[in-house]
Amino acid sequence: MKKMPPTTQRKTIDKAMQIMTAFTQSRPELAVTELAERLAMHKSVVSRITATLRTWGMLEVNPVTGRLRVGPMAFRIGTLFSHHPNSLADVAGPLLADLVSHTGHSVHLSVRKGEFILVVATVESPSALRVIMRVGDERHLHATAAGKLFLALCAPELLRKTYRASGFVPLTPHTITTMADMERGFARIRRERVAHNRGENTLGAGAVAAPVYSRTGEVVAAVSTVFPLNVVDAEQRSLIERSTKACAESLSVKVAQMPQRTFA
After folding, report:
1. Among 81, 80, 88, residue whose Cα is nearest residue 261
2. I need a surface site. Which of 119, 121, 147, 156 has the fewest CB within 10 A?
3. Which CATH code for domain 85-256?
C-alpha cells in the first residue's frame, strides 16, 4: 500500500483532532454535515475520517438519532489522564473535599483552555439543592468567576483575543457583554485575588473563584465554589470567599512542589 507523505499524514491527523474536539458537553452529538459546516471541511473528507475514528472506537453512532458521538475508546483514554498519579486534579482532591465540608456547596477546579475554562475536578455538595459541574465541562471565560480570574490576572492580550474570537456572548440577562464593563472589575479582582459570578452563566447560579499559582507566579488553575444564589446571603458569601481563597492558597503551595509542567 502506498504510504502518504509526512505532510499529508500530519494534515489528516490535524483534521481528525479538529473533529474529535468539536464534541463538547453542549454539543455531545453531531452529524457529518454539521461537522463539515462547523470545521469548514468537505463532507467527503469528514465522512472518511469519521469512519476511521469509528473503526478505532473513538467515535460511534447513536442508534436512535443516527448522529455521531464520542466512543468508548476516547473515554478509556480520557480516564488515563484523569487518574494520572500526582496530577493537578489528584493533588487538589482532598483540599476540594475539605472546602465542600466548610461551605456546604459544590466545588470545582478548572484550567484555561483557549477562550474557555475546562473543569478538571469536582466535589459535589451533599445538599439536594446544589449547582452541579461535571469534569470535562467547558464554560466561557467572560461568564464565569474562574474565567474572570484568568482574564484579569493573565496577559492583557487574552481579553482582546477572547473578545475577538466570538464576542462576549450574552448567556443570561446578567452576562457582561463589553470589554469596558469587564475591565472595570479587574482592579478589584487583582487587589482581592477573588472573582464572583452572579447568574452570568446560568440564571440562579453563583460562584466565587480564587487563583492557583505555579512556583513562577503564573495562574495555572482556579478553585471555584458554586451555589444557588437564593440560598446564600452576604455573610455566607463572605465565608465562601475566605474558604475558597484559603483552599486555592493551599493548593498553590502543593503545585509549587510538583514537577514543573503545563496545566492549561
Report:
1. 88
2. 156
3. 3.30.450.40
